[in-house]
Specification:
The complex is a heterodimer of chains A (about 260) and B (about 650). By secondary structure, chain A is an alpha+beta fold. Chain A contains 10 helices and 7 strands. Chain A folds into 2 domains: about 120 residues, Beta-grasp domain (Ubiquitin-like (UB roll)), CATH 3.10.20; about 130 residues, Orthogonal Bundle (Fumarate Reductase Iron-sulfur Protein, Chain B, domain 2). Helix content of chain A is about 35%, strand content about 10%. Chain A has a 5-stranded mixed beta sheet. In chain A, strand 1 and strand 2 form a beta hairpin. The termini of chain A are far apart. Chain B has about 650 residues and is α+β, with helices and mostly antiparallel strands. In chain B, about 40% of the residues lie in helices and about 15% in strands. Chain B contains 18 helices and 19 strands. In chain B, the strands form 5 sheets. A 5-stranded parallel beta sheet of chain B has the order 5-2-1-9-17, sandwiched between helices. Chain B has a 5-stranded antiparallel beta sheet with strand order 11-15-14-12-13. In chain B, a hairpin with a 2-residue loop joins strand 6 and strand 7. Classes of the chains: A alpha+beta (about 260), B alpha+beta (about 650). Chains A and B meet through helix 1, helix 3 and helix 4 of A and helix 3, helix 5, helix 6, helix 12 and helix 13 of B.
Amino acid sequence: MDLTLKVWRQKNAKTKGHFETYQVKNISEGSSFLEMLDILNEQLVQEGIDPVAVEKGCQSSGPVSFDHDCREGICGACSLYINGRAHGPDDEVTTCQLHMRKFKDGDTITIEPWRSAGFPVIKDLVVDRGAFDKILQAGGFISVRTGGVPDANAIPIAKEKADESMDAAACIGCGACVATCKNGSAMLFVAARVSSLALLPQGKIEGARRAKAMVAKMDELGFGNCTNTRACEMECPKHITVSHIARLNREFLCAKFQD
Amino acid sequence: MASTLNSKIPEGPLAEKWSKHKAGIRVVTPGNKRKLDIIVIGTGLGGASAAASLGELGYNVKVFCISDSPRRAHSIAAQGGINAAKNYQNDNDSVYRLFYETIKGGDYRSREANVYRLAEVSNNIIDQCVAQGVPFAREYGGLLANRSFGGATVSRTFYARGQTGQQLLLGAYAALNRQVAAGTVKSYPRHEMLDVVIVNGEAKGIIARNLVTGAIERFGAHAVVIASGGYGNTYFLSTNAMNSNGSAAWQCYKKGAFFANPCFAQIHPTCIPVHGEQQSKLTLMSESLRNDGRIWVPKKLEDVAKLRKHEIKPSQIPEEDRDYYLERRYPAFGNLVPRDVASRAAKERCDAGFGVNETGLAVFLDFKTAIDRLGEDKIRERYGNLFQMYEKITAVNPYKEPMMIYPAIHYTMGGLWVDYNLQTTVPGLYAIGEANFSDHGGNRLGASALMQGLADGYFILPYTIGHFKDGPVNTQTPEFEAAEKAVKDKIEKLFSIKGKRTVDSIHKELGHIMWEHVGMARNEEGLKEGIKLIQALKKEFWSNVFVPGSNFEFNQELEKALRLADFLEIGELMARDALNRRESCGGHFREESQTEDGETKRDDENYMYVAAWEYKGEDVEPELTKEPLVYENIKIATRNYKD
């Protein structure tokens, strides 16, 4: 199929970006969306850099930068806003799992980076999600050292609880929830971690402290508040539900009462 | 004759070696640990667990990864599970049995002492992960569940749906985050190590490129730990992540660290087949699927022809016209033979004309029997995410029609040579996880990579990392100066070529050469031809590549070019090693050395050694040193998965 692409180009965090239009031809419907971008980039490299454009700071030629790595939907690196939806038009997939059979010959596709105050653009479609690391560093762990822990079967956990914990732990930290939220809130991301650990006896112990520390860090880093629109849940490629936000709120309230 | 290698295997009975060795290690006092800096390259299971554990002990750790976050390391993509000798199933598992099956699975080309230690600490790993909050699969009674994996006689694999690697990595990453918060570890995401700096024969730091700004920076330390994974992407198409590369390990090789068994690459039998020339990545379907999936091709060539023309569906082929070739050839292990055996058997059927897709390079993995026996819900619970992934990629519903699979490059058993302390031949330079060579011999068993990465990082390296003279490491020395200049010159050279070929087009060509000549079946003539082709392609790269943009920006084409420069050299060493090893063993199949029924034929008399290669300079043949493998506890046998 032949496609028209409108791609966001931005040299770096300091410059202004703009949309650039490209044509790609003979894309197989079995290709993934990122393979289609690989083909675009091969084309752009072969065309060479336009030195005048580069000098002006609006790199309108040369390959498009985008984050990607595992290409099987688990590393969370890929992060594109495609035709106004995080990870594109398919449900419960990351961009790397999106296949071109979801598009039609002659389509125009608009590709943007995540847009959120918490995720500044590094270049083109690449954003800085370092804030997620910082939130997890604030408390997204169980405080155990290596060694000196009990036998694994000394901590029985009801299968249902373990399964529910796993549902939340499936979060890949891609940031689609933040990018989709009109408030730029990271509640679903925070809730997934807090809830996953709070459901387990070994994580329950410091649950309240964890919830408080992570929420405080999220606020400090400029993410917005949750107003229950549930847009995050709709776009989460791993189908993490807002029920985990409810659990986060419970943990958070417990922490407040303990204060 | 080259210098002999000292593997530093402790004396004494096998089961006591590790505890005796630990007892003999002089411990660095807490006050002195604070004065020691350690650099860790990579944040997969090995790197993250090592950095976290070393930080907890009080060392100053700097950890580097090329991704935007440590959590993206490719360990995250491991699906099926992690082995441990817990014997929770009461099926007579033990440390010895796990050790024995790992040695046998590796086709008797790994060290007894290392593998025994690996099996010994395997149980601690499961305990550690549960304490960290890893949500492993559980039985209704609340205790941990297990599944079976290839090459094992017992059910010893712990798992978290089809996302075990993700959950273990999130556990190690959480431990790492805790140390970052505590200030013992400093994290450097989006930084790529481009050289190791050796001062007076010891590793004293690295040169790294800040991938956002392009700045070339110096980092000093008392020890450097390489945990950067394997070099499977030499083949271009593999199940590795797009950014996985062999460059960190390769710089160590070029600075004097020996590289061991480079030709041992694992070809995984259950990957989604190649769909066309536009493909940039292959997707793995977990080995755990072979617990319930049955592998087959049609018995009749006319059915194959109809399948390729889409005239019939695979489900329409009657039972009696199907060839379940693994069950036929290997009655004892059936669909659960080790990966190398399953891969070659698929190739054999496809070479004979029975491949089931348009390219003729695919076999079926069928769940019908299991769905009839257990119901669709049970299968969904076990493999739901894998089935979903398969359907998203291929648009075929695997609950209704069988999956199509074909072998692909997945893991490299070879890597930096290390002694029992996981130290390379360069003092102060360590290698852990897939980056080293030590535990898997000629073939790694499923669910053992996660085990090794975490064993090295949590429980071995923190003990064996040695004593170093403290005092600040000075990065303003001629050695750092020279290393930095070499890196800058190399980058400048790449930009200056301004040729006509894209990096990817050359990488694809390398991949074709590797798959054709250093792939699933190798022979002398093909390997020699392969070496010639790789050398010519290397020349082509250095005279005709085009790298756009500049160094002083986020530049993914430059990143790829630097990695490809190393893949071209790694590929050549792989071919050389494969040429030297005139035997078949594990994943390395030399056509000249096979049994009458096409199985691998080892040559224990001449090749029971680790082949360790030493860099001798640009365009000079590397020198081979052999570390003999001695089996004191295991009786060497022909690997038999038939009965």
